[in-house]
Structure formats: structure tokens, C-alpha cells
Structures
1.
Amino acid sequence: MRVSDTYCRFLAQCDGVVEQEPHESLLSISVDSAEQETASMCKIDLKPWHFWAKKGYKTFEVDGTQLEAYWDLRSAKFSGSPEPSADFYVALVSDEEVVLLLGDQKKKAYKRTRATPALVDAMMFYKKENVFGKKSFSTRAKFDERKREHEIVVESSTTGPRDPEMWISIDGIVLIHIKNLQWKFRGNQTVQVDKQTVQVFWDVHAWLFCAPGSNYGLFIFKPGDPDADSDGDDSSRGDDSECSGNSRYYSTQSYSKGTQFCLFLYAWKIE
């Protein structure tokens, strides 16, 4: 089973300025069909109104199997992202097994669903995030679930008399500095983060040659040695920007231990 969950925070445009609405959000869970090239979607509107039930339950069907989605976001904490950071759970149940469990309130989720943990743990394949800014774009991600979260910052200087430049920092350390960005708007480098190899790819052609806000610069952070990549990697599924938010893709299929997480960062320049 392949599942993706997306947290979106909608944007409003007023007098040419794009603003992020702090409360209007959407959580969607998409499940791929194993028999057809289709996906079933369960959407949960995170409405700002006081009477909206932040605790809920929905059912939907995939390949003749009924899936149940449970969520409790009543006490959820947010830290500058549409994705909750603590005090919540979102659970997906199939055949009385919790096949996907997000959040830190796991005991509450199991108690409410009355389902057992899945025999095969869900594995995160990629995370997508859309960020908006003028010169600086930041996010946080784990390159290894067993290690700490890292702060990733992309900074750029694409206007003015000087040649355009770009800096990519992780945990406050500049690991990549690209000068003459007008000639090097696509590229890749390999860096070390906490003794872990991370491949970094970028494509910022749109920043330099498209109208501001009309397209994004794409950054991909992929842990692992380049020589260890396999042709069967599913990370390419993340090569699509869906909305102004976060999206994560999981699978409960069996894969080798060499399968790695991948972060896709879509950076939209706003003037």
C-alpha cells in the first residue's frame, strides 16, 4: 500500500502581495491503487470556525477494501508550518490494522481505532514542501529517522548590479555557495551532514528567466552516496508540486534497507 498525506495552507493575493492564511488549511490522504493507475483521496478541511470538529472519522474504499481515517487535532501545535508538530494523531486503518500513524499521540490513536499495529512499518519515501519568500527559504527535515532534525536554508541574490549568487546552509553552516548563478542555475553537489552523505540537486532557472512568482526553484536533498542509487528508486514520484504546503509519501511494501528518504523543496520567489 502506498499512501501520501498532504498538509496545505492556502494563500491569498491582495494588491499583488501573496499572504498566507494562518488558519485555513487542508489535510488530504491519498492511497494508490495496486490494480489500477488511480488514487483514492480522503480530504479533511481544517476550518478556522469554532464549531469545526477537529476530531473526526471518515471511510473510503480502495480496490474493494474499506479504509478508515481517524484524526484528532484539537490540541495540535504548529510551528510556522501547515503540518502539526506535536499533540495530535492521524491514523489510517485497513483490515483492523493501523497501516499509517502520524503524530505523537500513538496511545490515543490505538485506543480509539481499536486496531493493532501493522506487521510492516510504513516507510517515508519523500517529503515535499512549498515555501514562499523574496531571498530566503527555510525548512526542517530529518535525513535519518534515528537522528535529529536539521534546519535547511536557501538564500539567494538574483537582483542588482552584481552577478547572481546562491547559498545553501544546513544547521547554520554554508555548505554550498554558487557564484555566477546565471550560468550554473542547474547542478548538484555532495555534502556531509553529521557524518552522513547528502546529495543536493537544484534547478533555479525560473528564478532568473521567468516572471516573479510564476514558477519555482526546485531543490532535492537525497541522503546516501551517489554510487548507491538504484534504478528502482521511487523517489521520482515527488517530482510534482501539488499545493502550498507539505506532502509526504509512505509505503508499507517491503524494500531493501538501502531505500532512502528524499526531500523536495519548491521555492517560490515573491517580489
Note: The helical segments are 106-113, 205-209.
2.
Amino acid sequence: MLTITDTDPNQLPEKTEPDSASPRVLSILSLVLERLVNRNETLNLSSGGGRLGKNLEVFHGIRPPAITIPKYLDRIYKYTDCSPACFVVGYIYIDRLVHRHPGSLVVSLNVHRLLVTSIMLAAKILDDEHYNNAFYARVGGVTNAELNRLEVEFLFMLDFDLTVTSRVFESYCSYLEREIIMMNGTKLKIENGTRTNTIEDIAEISVEDMESFSSSLSNGGLA
């Protein structure tokens, strides 16, 4: 599972200075994605767990991660230089991927890997400076080899269509803002901004629990 290994002697130190408030887009995306995952999990169960979502199996973990979607997005924001716009574009990529592959479902087994892959790709497109795959893998709790593989798979599933026009971007921002109003009556505006951190600040996490992770590595990868 995606868990923070507090007792790991190789764990890097957490930041000691107080963090500035996370951008509102993280809260908005967290609520929208959690609702999407819950709905898809129900749909998958009602269908008997058949072929629904099979197109995204490459992004599936062994079991649902322990870390929540809000905390995972906060972690990516905390340790990377990607702008808040990257989170919106990452969501656009996931939505585009699902529409290109009917029957695909974003569920608890794949949402974290989809997020770290899509946000990393968005940063490469949008930001003048960005971290490499190894850094994102460390932040996201996957191996560098796995993230490289997920990136290639994601790109081919999108037919390398990473272009997002300003009109499309604004339409998704408006959609996400409307979703929040519908869900809890709160009006939130998606903002822009950047942050900076160094690799020394990253606390280690593992994509699965340590036993499962060690076992999978011995077999050449995760299930």
C-alpha cells in the first residue's frame, strides 16, 4: 500500500518549516475524484467485477493504497515544483484517456498511479522547469522503472495527444468549480501558483506494504 514508513532508517526528513496553504484545486480535485472512485467501485461491484476497468489494469496496484487521494495530491504538491495548473491538466489527461477507452474505470486500485503519471506529464508540458521521472517516482511511491513504464503506457493510450488549449483548460476549471457547488454548496475558484522544494525534503513512501513490495521486486515488478 501507499504508506509512509516512519520506522525506515533510510527515510528522508520531513520539512520542518510550516507549509503554505495548499491551492484550492487540490481540495476540488480530491472531492471530485473521491466521488468518481466511489461511484465506479459501486458500478464495478454491481457488474460482478467483470471486464469493467480492465483497460487500465497496467495502473492497478495489488490492493487499494492506504494513503487517501487528498493526502496523495498534497504530497505531490508539497514536494514538486509543478504549478496548480498541472493538477487540472493531469485530470484532463485522465478524463481524455477514459473517454478514448470506453469501459475503463478510475478506481481505488489505479487512481494514485494515474494521478502521479498524468501530473508528471502535465508538468513536462506546462512548466519551464520540472523534476525528472526518478524524482516523481520517489514522491509517488513507485519505482523509477515502473513510472517509466506507466508513462509510456499512458502516452500510447492517449495517442500522444497532450495538447490542452486555453479554452479546454478553462472549461474544465469551470466544470470542477460547478461540481463543488453541486456537492456542498461551496464556491471555490481555481487559482495558479508555484512552489519549490528540494529532494532532501522528501519522506519515503512505498507503493505497497513492505512485504508485498519486497516480494514483487524479487519477481521483477509489482502485480
Note: The longest strand covers residues 3-4.
